Amino acid sequence: MPVQITVRNVPEEVRDALATRAAVRRQSMGEFLSGELERISAKPSIDNVLQEVHRRKETAGTRISPTEILAERDADRT
Fold this sequence. Notes:
mainly alpha, 2 domains
């Protein structure tokens, strides 16, 4: 069941920019914001992504030094 969310103290320029984006898509502000909130909620948070990277790194058990990374990056530049 849908719920209502109220956001207070949004600067006018932010509201205007969002209204413009909604209008370009021929949507109401509510439709536009609802779609954006759904899109945002479908993505993992930065914290979750970093935790997954850390977990994979621990599982792989390998360490590459910054010097090795830079050497590999620069290897084909000479």
